Amino acid sequence: MPTDRRPAYAPHADHDAVAALRERLTAHADERPDAPAVRWRTAAGWSGTTWRELAATARRVAARATAELPAGRAVVVATVNTGAHAAVLLGLLAAGFDVVLVEHDSSYLADPLSAVYAARPGAVVAAVDGPRPTATGELRRLAVEDLVAGAPQAEWPDRTPGAATVLQLTSGSTGEPRVAAVPLGAALRGGALYRDLFDLDERDTILAAVPLAHSFGFVGALCAAVLSGGTLALLVRFTGRGLVEGLDAGATALLATPFVYGLVPDLLHGRVRPDRLRVALCSGGPLTPAAAGAAGGRLGCPVRQIYGSTETGLIACQPGRSRPWPAEGVGGFVPGVRWRVEPAQGSEAGRLLVRTSTMFTGYVGRGGAEALRPDGYYDTGDLVDVDDAGDVTIVGRKATFINVGGRKVNPRRLERLIGELPGVRAVHVCGLPDARGNEEIHAVVELTPGTDPAAVVAGCRQRLTAYEVPHHVHAVDRLPRTALGKVAAPALRDLIAGRGAGAPGGTTATRRSTRT
């Protein structure tokens, strides 16, 4: 039955979230100036910054951005998991700028039709050797290194900031990805949820094996660290060695994807369990009970599922309690979530609609406000079963995106970009599990005479982020289609998997493949 619980821990409203962010950074710098705020691992080893240094750098970023960037325009940050990038994100938001989060190697910046540009940004902030956006007009490029360099800034800018918004790319599970507008206040309330549900404080070290550009990393790691006063530990690039080093260095909380937890048993085989780890949180896709049990056994603490979305923030999770959580469940609804389940045709489970304290306000662009029901509820599109105790089990998910190691890849967007390559007449992209159960990207293409699948792979490598490049490209004479002209996806999947030899309508599909 629907609930209407309201959080008692939200210390601010959206209109003064900027002031709350400034206050937290200043308080940590005053009370614990030499305590570690952010640590990050590069190929050369670990680096770090204190709360005093982080707050001073964030103030400098805020002052420079206020002086140099156009007011009222969003700023795209091509984010790397370092202390400098954390300071840039915090400084821009503390100056009242809307910030678009993307990963540093994101192909979206090179795609003028991507959702990033629907936000009409005024500037892109990236590392000196980072991406250069494909855009025209007044878009300015600033280097992270220039924003954070120079003398410490003692005060925040005098200009009264507006209500900052975090603009985050969705996975686009029902079409091309979009940009969700999440008020800074909602993001901070999300960080407070993680802090309170998992008892995080200044004694904790939060190891984030996820990008800061993703909601899990930004809210669950960065915002939670700022609100708890704990240390944020980051991996610039995920490696097994970096993860082990972070655990050995005293991480007390780990945020990672199912892909990472699947590696944990092998990575920690024969090693002593991490002696301080007490919280292990998993988001980015479903985690099987077997995988959770194997990883938890090596880590010495249970791996707890997190269920939410960019649009809603945290919906349900598995905090500690006396009775065990159902093996296939995602936990119970967190404080502040109102929910209802509507009937779904052909299923005993129902579609979950939620209204949370961490909600977005809509998507950027035309029709963005229509994402919410008139009563403010958001349709997750997930089929759920909620038992009498309030425990939530996901029966079916929106699953048109492909989960590559915990990163969501949108097949419709890949179809558009691959379809623009020379020699490609038609394309269909889908995900299929490999022998270990991890999803791989398959692109099935109709090619003009003389075009080879290897050329498609080469073109993808030029246009896409590494994890977006199809693992397999299959060339066929003709894509199988239904009587209505739509691609017959089941027939293609059977063809790829070797379970079928032909296409509907008597058309024989000749298959050539190249492994990327």
From TrEMBL:
The keyword Ligase is annotated on this UniProt entry: yes
Any Pfam family matching the protein: AMP-binding_C
Every AMP-dependent synthetase/ligase domain range: 26-363
GO BP annotations, alphabetical order: fatty acid metabolic process
Record-annotated membrane-spanning stretches: none
Molecular-function GO term, any one: medium-chain fatty acid-CoA ligase activity
InterPro entries attached to this UniProt entry: AMP-bd_C (IPR025110), AMP-bd_C_sf (IPR045851), AMP-binding_CS (IPR020845), AMP-dep_synth/lig_dom (IPR000873), ANL_N_sf (IPR042099)
PROSITE patterns recorded: AMP_BINDING
Superkingdom as given in the UniProt entry: Bacteria
Boundaries of every AMP-binding enzyme C-terminal domain copy: 414-486
Key words of the record: Ligase
Coiled-coil portions: none
Family affiliation: Belongs to the ATP-dependent AMP-binding enzyme family.
Name of the protein described by the UniProt record: Malonyl-CoA/methylmalonyl-CoA synthetase
